[in-house]
Each structure stands twice: as C-alpha cells, then as structure tokens.
Amino acid sequence: MGNISTFLKRKNIVISGKRYAIDALAAMAQGLFCSLLIGTILNTLGTQLGVPALNTIGGYATVMSGPAMAIAIGYALQCPPLVLFSLTAVGQASNALGGAGGPLAVLIVAIIAAECGKAVSKETKIDILVTPLVTILVGVGLAALIAAPIGAAASQVGKLIMWATELQPLLMGILVSVIVGIALTLPISSAAICAALTLTGLAGGAAVAGCCAQMVGFAVLSFRENRWGGLISQGLGTSMLQMGNIVRKPIIWLPAILTSAITGPIATCVFRLQMNGAPVSSGMGTCGLVGPIGVWTGWLSPSEAAIANGAAAIVPGAANWIGLALVCIVLPAVLCWALGLLFRKRGWIKDGDLKLD
Fold it and tell me: Closest Cα partner for 233 from 86, 115, 355, 59?
C-alpha cells in the first residue's frame, strides 16, 4: 500500500473531491467558455450584423469545445505536456459520443485518461510514443464505452428539471435559482453543471436569475466595504470572492440567497424568461454579462441544445427586454441592498464582514 501511495505522489496523482469536483470542473467551464460560448456569441453577431467572417470564426470555436474542455481539465490536473496535448483527441471523442450531455462525459473520461497518462509518463525511454498512446487509447476507448450512456443520463436529468420547471414554475423557479446561484458562489462551477445538464428554456432562465442574484447582490451588498472595485470584481467577475467571508460568517450569504429565491420565480412565472443560448450561459450570471447575452442570443438564434428541447427564434419585444433587465440587474441590486440594510440594522451583518482582501 505504501508503494502505491509513493507512486501516486511521485506522479502527482491526487485522488480527491477537490481536484476532480472543484478544480477540474472549474477548468472545464473555462474551456467551454473559450470555445462553445465565445463561438455562439460570434455566430449570433455574424448573423445579426451580416458579417459572414464572424460566423466562420464562431463555427471554428464551437466545434473545438470538446478538445478545449479536455485540455482545460488536464491543465487543472497538472498533466505533463504529452498527456495534456493527447487529451485533444479524448475530448473530441467524449464530447461527440456523449451527445447533448457531452460535457459531463468529457469531465469523467478526461480525468481518467489524464491520470492514466500521468501514471506512464516518463516511465520508458520511448515516452514520446507510450504516453500519447496510453492517454488516447484509454480515453477514446473509454469514451466509446461510457460517453453515450453518461451523456444520455445527464441529458435526461436536465430534461427532467426543465419539464418540472414548466409544470411547476413557482416551486422550481425557486429551487433552480437558489441551487444554481449557490453553486456559482461556491468553489465549484455552476456553468459546467448547467452545460452538463444542457439546461436551457425556462429552467435556464431561473438559473440565470439565481446566478445574477448572487453576483449583483454581493456587489451591491458589499459596496460599503469594497466600493467600485468590489462592485466590478463581483458584479462582472464572480461572487466566489466572498467565500472566505462566508466561511467566517455564513449569515452574510442569506441576503443573496433570499434574493435568488425571489427573482427565480419572477423569471419563470412573471416574465417567462427563457435562456435558449449555449447551456453554459445558464450558470454564468453577469460574469462578463454572459448570462444576459445568452438570453439574447437564444432569442435570435437558439443553440442546438435549446432547439432539441423545442426552442425557436423570436423577435424580442419591450416586455422581453424589461424582464431581462429587471431579473438580471435591477431586482437583484434593489432586493439585496434592501435586505442588507435590514441585516445591518439587526446587527447580523457588521461593517467589515464583507470586506474583500
């Protein structure tokens, strides 16, 4: 047993929930962002502006989402170069064979292939042949066996959530908004979760609402302590910056959570806000304004995942734009600010509790 532990340590193979469920998942979301999401935005701009070159570039970015995710995962797992580059084929195979639930298949298969590649890396004099062969054979072979079932299972879970949201928009609006919003602030990736579940439609709108409630909410809630720098870093960056303060004093999270519990059902029941862009946008919130942009791109040119779930392009009217602005920006700011005043008045939040380092 000791020999195995020594070997794993020497190979930097750390079997832990943090490395696989937090580090790898967060990196996967970045890979997805830099390929599928950016490609979708470029495609939409190209179509709306009549610039075919943008569609071409966007198309190239979109088709590379599988390799981008796998390489990002390998980077998070600190793979040596030959393993990292070999994950290109693994990501492509896993994403293609995983179908709509491809991102989850990529996550699981790429982790296993990466660790197997690391295990044999630099163990032979023909490393340049052995390491890529092992990584690709293990990864693509595993993808052929399990990617389709994993993708199908993830897709079915996503469809169940979307079906339940259509059936019970009030209850599910609250649950989806709160859960995805909490995931966004935790050191895991809400974007990757939404992508793996191919979360679009009304459920995607609730997820966008929850994420925006956390980001805009914390930006406004902590303005007294962090001023404009904090407003921008949290409102357009990530509310994850508050995790240290949340661990020290969990009650400071409650105004943002309550806000998401309010804006979620407003999105689903009042404005019927649907996010039919790339599923990853459902879990991005106002990070780079990706969540609202995803809603916009979904209006004009729904993603393949959204079309598979029955979405169609629409011409947005004033009500659509008002709903988007209220759910994503105005209501989170006003509600979380008001709740913050109440919490400060009660002494539950004190000056300095939300100060960023």
Answer: 355
